[in-house]
Each structure stands twice: as structure tokens, then as C-alpha cells.
Write a structure and sequence with these properties.
The complex is a heterodimer. Chain A has a 7-stranded mixed sheet, with helices on both faces. In chain A, strands 13, 14, 15, 18, 21 and 22 form a 6-stranded mixed sheet that branches. A 5-stranded antiparallel sheet of chain A has the order 25-24-23-27-26, with helices on one face. Chain A is an alpha/beta fold. Among the domains of chain A are: about 130 residues, ATPase, nucleotide binding domain (Nucleotidyltransferase, domain 5, 2-Layer Sandwich), CATH 3.30.420.40; about 100 residues, Cobalt-precorrin-4 Transmethylase, domain 1 (3-Layer(aba) Sandwich), CATH 3.40.1010; about 90 residues, no CATH class. Chain A starts with a strand and ends with a strand. Helix content of chain A is about 30%, strand content about 25%. Chain B is α/β, with parallel strands linked by helices. Chain B has an 8-stranded parallel sheet with strand order 2-1-4-10-9-6-7-8, sandwiched between helices. Chain B is globular and about 65 Å long. The chains are: A alpha/beta, B alpha/beta. At the A-B interface, helix 5, helix 11, strand 26 and strand 27 of A face strand 1, helix 1, helix 4 and helix 9 of B.
Chain lengths: ~575, ~425
């Protein structure tokens, strides 16, 4: 049996799955001020009358890091960045303890200006005096040559608890994002470490000793040990959990839309042949941009509890939530009230719902029924409009080769999978309005926990081979090896595959769930100087795709022997 | 916070799978390091910088600017069409006011491709700026356009396409034609009889540095633009004036390019040449992008930049000043020069020989233009390529007067079919193209 636990904003869901399907599921309220006890009470209820030795996998998704960012309770971190030519690094300042230093590496990974060791010593002293314990070091183009970062770390090591290096964060180029991501890892490290060490200890006391896996924003998992180096990757794992929970019901060989309709927002994501689409560079939310691998999701401020208002005959929905629906004692009418009025939902207080919708109906000059219908239809229209905008955006993403321009993949979803409380009511309406096969995912209230439980380990490696300089590197993995002039595409792929496999095993992957390897990117260039070939540059990115572990998916369709227990 | 002061659109199309041939300067690797640099700088994350996907230019787009022989498909590849299409996408973004200005970083380039194109010359098969400009004129009804070509080579293709057009001001500043391909672009080349002075060619001596370039911009280009009052300024942004370029002998630098862009304020910039792909392009392109977006670019300096080594000599400075004085006096007299160039109604003939270095073609042209005071004047070009076809191309300018329209059709209809392999008519007022 396996366990998935997802800490959400208001509820924490947990499930035990076996080959027979859902064995047990629980829902406990989330206490944002005490996530540790939230997680613990989830486990306590889940494991009641269950033999912990039967559990062979545990995956946890939390809002720990997300909350730390939102509430700005992150640890102060010293950042040392070396930029060389380009945009003034002062623009990427992360806080008070931010130092731009000399030293420069160019796009080929060649040193253009050395590190000034005296300068680093001096900054180390200042940081130490300021009481800083964690430091991030990022140099521009460190993914081509990390030697400056390594040298600076060597100088800093003896002064600080932990030093985080930019080239370990990602194989992708993007200096500002690398600074932000390295800073995030350093800033949530202590919080993450103490939290999960406490969780691990408590679970061990309950007799649950299997290695803990942590859910990442890309819908994959990593081992607790691996997460210590990159705690930032756990940010926004919540939306990822839900999307992964929809995969068992996704069509094979087709594109699908996943809509997770919550109380305040609706998350939108896409599946291509049961695999979720990823962000091309990394998570971005508003001004915050990172190199953290993530599912491509966006959210629209509209959900079951969005506030309804009318002004000048115009209906507005959300983006705020003022409380639950009036049917459930809330202060303002909401789309949920419309569902109650339309008789689609038979829970809650219909009188109160009607009273709320009546004010909307008066403002719009419609009957109550017509107003409720309009609210419902408008919700669907707004969500789908945003969805189609995202599809357009994905399909108009710039490409850099003639081949991709002419033959690049075009996303064209033929099915919509709905998650979240109101999903079953929305399914038929959306299908009627848009003529797209729409399906409410069963057990959608715990789809997030199911998604966490079933998510397999993911990882990615980026390699750069340069036969002119005679080296193949994957600096993110601390890998560099000399190569000869005859190094080929096959050699590159073999090296990449071995590195990927090793990385996956180290991240806690189960060898039987490692066959979904994908070459994300491959490029080859001849290096020519003065009209004569000097060598070749090969680049590739290879990943273990996000997806589900084997052996559980089939039984989910059979919704038997399932004991629901609510807290 | 880092933010573009001017909303700037970018099309970045490095065509990583296209080359003229594997060791040709115009090959896959050319924009690789530029892409690395702009990606590492996080350019596409800056609020106010918007990246657009290029589109394919259509044969119809090309037919507004050029006679392709035998036709558009034969002399282009997809990469040419995407390159021209990329420029079009930027034009739409700028004209549609989605962005304040835009830069098409596309390859292959286009500014050596002329009104008649039998194939590739100077790495160019079709003229991407001219195609874009004609698209803008037709689609957005813009009348006066200035094209400033800052590539190190004379922009002879664009010069030729707008030779007879008084509404398009073409200024090319480039390394002296006596020292460099294509060997043209001297101060006396001022445009056709109906458009004298609307083409200005400013040759610069080898060794010209930032000082010299900015002198020309400040003392010639900007004052001329002030008088011409264009509705739109296009920059053919070649980057081969750089001190490390392997094909040229100039001493320009990334800071200089960025300053030039700040001064020129182009609405649209289109990448042309530039083959110092590792030491120059990453920094020059970054500098141009930041300058267009109005972001501080003082940190964009090549690692090996040494201003003392790049200082231009006093004699070079003197030569540049003399050239600028000469150009300015031509510009001041342009209307008198047009009056003196011919009598309205008469047909003026010019003979040209054109060599296509990329495709090794030799072309002979006989051009006949109607002298006209009311428009650019219709003209016909009799062109024979060796190897290749013998064709006649008739052009009726976009703002043609009634007489010139009639005359254009007369050229086309009276042309003897048995003399030519193909006869083309480019009717710009009607936006139509005919072949017989």
C-alpha cells in the first residue's frame, strides 16, 4: 500500500492506495500556523487501524515553502553574484546581504576575468558580522563553467552553515532566475530541514519507516535527502498534485485540458498523451520568476465561492472570495448559490442561496432562475476563455529552428477533465457550451492526494559537449569529462542516459518506473573559425517525464471497497 | 526594478538548422552565442519586452518588392521566408501599437538582394527590409519611410529597390566600397532622376571607430531625418562594423552600437550581417535590445574591449568630416538635382552589371525610367542572368500618377514575348503582380 498526503490552503487530504484502489481517505483542516501538526494529524487518522509495515511508499506535498515566500518568513541569506558584461546585477538584488563581485565567464565557459579572493574574504567577514548563516553564490554562465562558484564556496565554507551554488539549481541559462532560485533554496533550507526531520521522526515513532518522498512542482517526487539540496522545488506542489491525480482518467494518445475548480481559483493545466506539459524555463508567478521545473499551470480568480456582484447591469464574478456560499452561511452570493438555485446541488440552505441570487437577479433585471443560469454560464465562459488563451500562447511560443517552425507540435485538446468540488455540475454545462468531451474525475475531492501518492520520481539532466575544448559537461551534476574530436551524438546520448539514471536513483526512483525517458532538446553545431571547422558543440536535455508509478492506475476506475472517513 | 521604458517587441529566429553551406559565415552557429547571452541575461523575462513567433512571408509579400526569377519558390528556402516573415511580424506589432518599437533578430539577411533577384548575393536571396517596408506601405498606408542601413557593407540591394522612390529615404553608412564587397555606395550615388537625394551613401574609411560612426549619425543622419520627417524609421542593423569582425576592417563596439540605436530611435530594427559570432554579436545584440527598450546598457562591454587600441586617427576623422560635408550639400541641393536630372516625360536609360557572389551568377540590366515630377516614375528592367533567364520586370510605383500607371501597362503589354523568358508586372497601386 502507498500513501499520498497533500496539504492544501484550507484542507489537508490523505489517501492510502492499494492495488485494489482507494483503501482509505481522510480530510483534516489545515492550520497554516502549524503545518507540522496538520501533517501529523493527517497521518494519525490515516494510519488508525492500518499496519504501518504494509506501507511501502509515502509521498508528501506541502505548502511550507509557498507559505514562507508569501508570508516573507524566509531566512536572511547572503548572496554573492558575479556578472561580468551585461545588465547591471543590482537589478536582481535579493535583499540586504547582496554583493556583486568581480570575475567573469563568457558564453563558451571561458574565464574572462578572475575572482578577487580578497574581495570574497572581505564580504565573508561582513556577512558573518551580520549574523548570516546561509549563503548563495551565483556567477553568470556558471552552467558552462562553475569554477568561480566553486572557488568562492571554498573560501566561504568555513564561515557558514551551508553554501548554495547557482550551477546546481538547473542546467538552464537565465542568470536573474538562477539568482532568485538559489536564494530561495538557501532561504527555506533551515525551515524545510527542521520540518521534515520532525515529520520523519514522528512517522518513525508510528512505525512508518519507509523513505519519504516529497512532491515537486513538476509533478514528480524526490527523496527527502535529495530535497535538502533543493527545498525550493517543493513550492507550488499543490496544483501539481491535483493535476497528477487527473492522469488516470486522461485519454491515451490525445491532448487534454485539466481544470481544477476550487473555492477561490481555478487551476488550468494540459496533458499530452497522459503526460503533463511543463513550463519551458521554470515557475513564474507574477514578478517572481525561477528556474524551478514546474507543470505549466495558470490560475484564474474564479471558483465556487467567488463573490458575485452587479454594477450598472453588469455581472462580475470574483476574483475575491468573501467566505463560503450563502447557502453555507456566507455573506455574499456565489456561483455555488447559483448551482443550488438551479437545483443542480442539493446540499446547503436553498432559501439563503435564493435570497442571494435574488439580489443579483434584480440588478440584472432577470428572473432568479435566469440570473442563476447566467452566473453559471458566465463562470464556464470565463474559465474556458482563459484556457483557450493559454492554448494560443503555448502554440505561439517562439521556435528556433526551421524544422520546429514547420513541424512543431500544436496542442489541440479533445477532452476536458474536471477536478474540485463543483466539477460534476460543471461538466455537462461545459460540454453543452463548447462541444468538447468533458468529464468530472471520480473521487475528485481527493484527487490531489491520489496524485501525490502515484507521482513517480522525475529529474532532468542538461549536457553540453564541446569538441573544440575537448570536454563534455553536466555541471548541475558536478560532471565533467574529457572527450575526443570524434565524440558523437550517440556518445552524448549514452552519457546523458547514464547521468539521468544515476540522478534518478539518487533521488529515490524505483528502477521499474524509469522507462519514460525523453530527449527534451538536442542541438548540434559546427564550430567554424576562419572558414575551417574547429569542432562541434552538442547540447541535450534529457528527462524522466512526470507520470504515474506502475500498478495502481487501473484499479482506480473501479470505485469499490472504499471507506471514507472525514474529520 | 528592471523594466523596459519603451515596450519592445523581439522576433528571435536563429534558424539553428539552416546554413548556406557548412563552413559559410551564414551558418547554423551564427546566433548561437547571441541566444546564449540574451537567454542568460533573462531578456525575455523583462517586463515590457515581448517575444513574438515569426511567420512565413508569402510569395505575395515578396512580389511587392522584388522580381524573383524564375519565381519566389525557386530562389528561396523556408528560412528566407521565416526571416522575412519575422520582420513582418515585428512590423505588425509596431504598427498595431502592441509595442513602441521592435527588433527582428533573424537570419539569413537580405540587404544585398535587389529589385530583380536571380539568386543569392552577399548571403542574401530576398530583401527582408524591402519586403517589410512594402508590406507596411500597403497594409498600413504609411507614406514616408526612412531606412538607415548601418551594416558595414553597402546595402546595395535596398539602395537599388528604393532608387527611384522619393518617399523612401535610404541612407547607408558602410566601409568604403574601394576596400570591400560589394564595391559600391559612393557619395555620388544619390538615387534615380525622380528621387535624387532620397538615397544617401556614406562611405567610411577602414579604421573608423565609435567616434566616427556617432559623428556621422549626429552631423548627417539625424539632421537629414529631421528634414525628411519620416513616418517610420527602419534600421538595417548589421553588426559587422565591430572591431573583431572577420570580414571587415572597422573599429566599432557594442557600446557604440547601443549609443547609435539610442540616437537613431528606430521604430523597427532588422538584423543584417555580422560574423564575429562569439566576440561581438552576443554583446552588440544585447546592447541594441537594451537601447531599444530604454534600459541602461553601460555594463554591456566586450571582455577584450580596449578603447585606446580602437581610437581613430586624425586623418580618418578628417576624411569622415569631408564626406559628411559633401553628403549634406547633396542633400541640401536635392530638388535642384532632380530638376537637372531630366525632362518630364522623357525615358532615361541606365545599364548595370551585377555579380552574385553567393550563387556565382552574372547579370546585365538595362533599365528605362520615365522622368516624372508627380511620382517616382514607372520603370522597366531588362535583365539577363548568366547562367539564368532573360526577363523584363515592369514596376509601377505605389504612389504612381495616372500617366505613369498607363505607361507601366504600356511597357508590360508592348514587351515582345519572344524576346524574354518571363515578363513581370508589379502594379503597386493595385497591389497586384502579373507574369507572362
Amino acid at each position: 500500500m502507498i500513501i499520498g498526503l497533500d496539504v492544501g490552503g484550507t484542507h489537508t487530504d490523505a489517501v492510502i492506495l492499494s492495488k485494489n484502489g482507494i483503501e482509505k481517505s481522510v480530510k483534516v483542516p489545515t492550520d497554516p500556523a502549524d503545518l507540522f501538526n496538520t501533517v501529523l494529524s493527517g497521518f494519525t487518522q490515516l494510519l488508525e487501524s492500518i499496519d504501518p509495515s504494509q506501507i511501502r511508499r509515502v509521498v508528501i506535498s506541502t505548502t511550507l515553502t509557498t507559505n514562507a515566500i508569501v508570508q516573507q518568513t524566509m531566512e536572511p541569506v547572503g548572496m554573492i553574484v558575479s556578472a561580468g558584461p551585461g545588465i547591471d546585477p543590482e537589478f536582481f538584488r535579493t535583499g540586504d546581504h547582496y554583493y556583486a563581485v568581480s570575475g567573469s565567464i563568457n558564453h563558451r565557459g571561458r574565464e574572462k576575468a578572475p575572482v578577487n579572493e580578497m574581495q570574497i574574504q572581505d564580504i565573508a567577514g561582513k556577512l558573518k558580522d551580520a549574523g548570516v548563516e546561509y549563503v548563495g553564490v551565483v556567477s553568470k554562465f556558471c552552467v558552462r563553467n562553475p569554477s568561480h562558484e566553486i572557488l568562492i564556496k571554498r573560501i566561504l565554507n568555513k564561515y557558514f552553515k551551508q553554501v548554495f551554488l547557482g550551477h546546481h539549481v538547473s542546467g538552464n541559462l537565465n542568470f536573474p532566475r538562477r539568482i532568485a532560485t538559489t536564494h530561495l533554496n538557501a532561504a527555506v533550507f533551515a525551515l524545510h530541514k527542521s520540518f521534515f526531520e520532525a515529520v520523519k521522526k514522528s512517522l518513525a515513532e508510528k512505525g512508518l519507516t519507509v523513505p519519504i518522498q516529497i512532491l515537486k512542482a513538476d509533478g514528480g517526487t524526490m527523496s527527502l535527502e535529495a530535497s535538502m539540496h533543493f527545498p525550493g522545488q517543493t513550492v507550488l506542489s499543490g496544483p501539481a498534485a491535483s493535476i497528477m491525480g487527473a492522469i488516470p482518467y486522461a485519454p491515451e494518445g490525445q491532448d487534454a485540458i485539466v481544470l481544477d475548480i476550487g473555492g477561490t481559483t481555478t487551476d488550468i493545466a494540459f496533458l499530452v498523451d497522459k503526460a503533463p506539459l511543463l513550463e519551458p524555463v521554470g515557475i513564474q508567478r507574477g514578478r517572481y520568476k525561477s528556474l524551478i521545473r514546474s507543470l505549466r499551470t495558470d490560475s484564474k480568480g474564479i471558483g465556487g465561492d467567488s463573490a458575485l456582484r452587479v454594477s450598472d447591469n453588469v455581472l462580475s464574478i470574483g476574483p475575491d472570495r468573501q467566505g463560503p456560499a450563502m447557502a453555507f452561511g456566507g455573506p455574499l452570493p456565489t456561483p455555488t448559490d447559483a448551482l443550488v438555485v438551479l437545483g443542480l446541488m442539493d446540499t446547503g440552505d436553498r432559501e439563503k442561496a435564493l435570497a442571494g441570487i435574488h439580489t443579483i437577479a434584480q440588478g440584472l433585471g432577470l428572473s432568479d432562475e435566469a440570473a442563476a443560469e447566467k452566473v453559471f454560464k458566465t463562470c464556464c465562459t470565463i474559465i474556458l476563455k482563459k484556457t483557450f488563451e493559454m492554448i494560443d500562447q503555448i502554440n505561439s511560443q517562439p521556435v528556433y529552428t526551421v524544422h520546429d517552425f514547420l513541424e512543431g507540435y500544436k496542442l489541440s485538446p479533445q477532452k476536458i477533465l474536471l477536478l474540485g468540488g463543483p466539477a460534476p455540475y460543471f461538466a455537462k454545462k461545459i460540454e453543452d457550451l463548447y462541444q468538447i468531451d468533458t468529464f468530472a474525475v471520480p473521487e475528485s475531492a481527493v484527487a490531489n492526494a491520489i496524485g501525490a501518492a502515484l507521482a513517480r520520481t522525475t529529474c532532468e539532466v542538461s549536457l553540453n559537449a564541446d569538441t573544440e575544448q575537448g570536454i563534455v559537461t553536466a555541471h548541475e551534476e558536478d560532471f565533467a569529462e574529457p572527450i575526443s574530436k570524434t565524440f558523437s551524438e550517440d556518445d552524448l546520448m549514452e552519457t546523458a542516459y547514464n547521468l539521468l539514471r544515476e540522478k534518478a536513483i539518487n533521488s529515490g526512483a524505483d528502477p521499474e518506473n524509469m522507462d519514460e525517458v525523453e530527449v527534451v532538446e538536442y542541438q548540434k553545431f559546427n564550430i567554424v573559425r576562419n572558414f575551417s571547422p574547429r569542432g562541434k558543440i552538442f547540447r541535450t536535455k534529457m528527462q524522466l517525464k512526470p507520470g504515474l508509478i506502475k500498478g495502481f492506475e487501473k484499479m482506480l476506475h473501479q470505485r469499490g471497497n472504499h471507506a471514507q472517513s472525514n474529520a | 526594478m528592471l523594466k523596459a521604458m519603451h515596450k519592445t517587441g523581439l522576433v528571435f529566429f536563429p534558424a539553428f538548422d539552416w546554413a548556406i553551406d557548412p563552413t559559410h559565415p551564414e551558418r547554423e552557429e551564427r546566433l548561437l552565442y547571441t541566444q546564449d547571452q540574451v537567454t542568460e541575461e533573462g531578456i525575455f523575462d523583462i517586463p515590457g519586452i515581448i517575444e513574438y513567433k515569426p511567420a512565413l512571408a508569402t510569395p505575395k509579400d515578396i512580389q511587392r518588392a522584388q522580381f524573383c526569377v524564375p519565381d519566389e519558390q525557386t530562389i528561396t528556402t523556408e528560412s528566407h521566408l521565416i526571416s522575412a516573415g519575422g520582420a513582418k511580424v515585428i512590423a505588425d506589432a509596431v504598427m498595431g501599437k502592441e509595442v513602441q518599437n521592435g527588433f527582428a533578430l533573424v537570419r539569413p539577411p537580405g540587404h544585398h538582394s535587389m529589385r530583380v533577384s536571380h539568386g543569392g548575393r552577399g548571403f542574401c536571396h530576398i530583401n527582408i527590409e524591402a519586403i517589410m517596408v512594402e508590406y507596411i506601405r500597403t497594409r498600413y498606408n504609411v507614406k514616408r519611410i526612412a531606412i538607415i542601413d548601418t551594416d558595414c557593407h553597402h546595402g546595395d540591394g535596398t539602395d537599388n529597390i528604393f532608387w527611384h522612390d522619393p518617399d523612401v529615404l535610404f541612407i547607408s553608412m558602410h566601409q568604403d566600397g574601394r576596400t570591400m564587397f560589394p564595391g559600391t555606395g559612393f557619395p555620388g550615388e544619390l538615387g534615380g532622376p525622380n528621387a535624387k537625394g532620397s538615397n544617401l551613401n556614406i562611405p567610411l574609411p577602414p579604421g573608423t571607430s565609435t567616434e566616427g560612426y556617432l559623428y556621422v549619425i549626429n552631423n548627417c543622419v539625424l539632421p537629414v531625418l529631421d528634414e525628411f520627417k519620416p513616418d517610420l524609421v527602419v534600421n538595417s542593423a548589421g553588426q559587422d562594423n565591430h572591431y573583431t569582425d572577420p570580414l571587415t576592417n572597422m573599429n566599432f563596439c557594442a557600446q557604440g552600437y547601443a549609443q547609435l540605436t539610442t540616437l537613431l530611435k528606430p521604430d523597427i530594427a532588422v538584423l543584417e550581417g555580422g560574423y564575429a559570432i562569439e566576440g561581438a554579436l552576443p554583446y552588440v545584440n544585447l546592447g541594441i535590445i537594451l537601447a531599444m527598450a530604454g534600459i541602461d546598457y553601460t555594463g554591456v562591454v566586450e571582455p577584450d574591449y580596449n578603447p585606446d587600441k580602437l581610437k581613430q586617427s586624425v586623418s580618418i576623422t578628417d576624411k569622415i568630416k569631408k564626406t559628411v560635408d559633401q553628403i549634406n550639400s547633396f542633400w541640401a541641393q536635392r530638388l535642384q538635382l532632380r530638376d537637372a536630372a531630366g525632362t518630364p516625360g522623357e525615358l532615361q536609360v541606365r545599364h548595370r552589371e551585377i555579380y552574385y557572389d553567393t550563387d556565382n551568377i552574372f547579370e546585365r540590366q538595362k533599365e528605362r525610367v520615365i522622368i516624372c515630377r508627380d511620382c517616382g516614375g514607372s520603370f522597366e528592367i531588362d535583365s539577363r542572368a548568366m547562367p539564368g533567364l532573360h526577363i523584363l520586370g515592369v514596376h509601377i510605383p505605389i504612389n504612381a500618377c495616372k500617366t505613369c500607371i498607363e505607361k507601366g501597362y504600356e511597357f508590360f503589354e508592348s514587351a515582345p514575348a519572344n524576346t524574354y523568358d518571363r515578363i513581370y508586372l508589379m502594379d503597386r497601386p493595385k497591389d497586384s503582380y502579373h507574369t507572362k
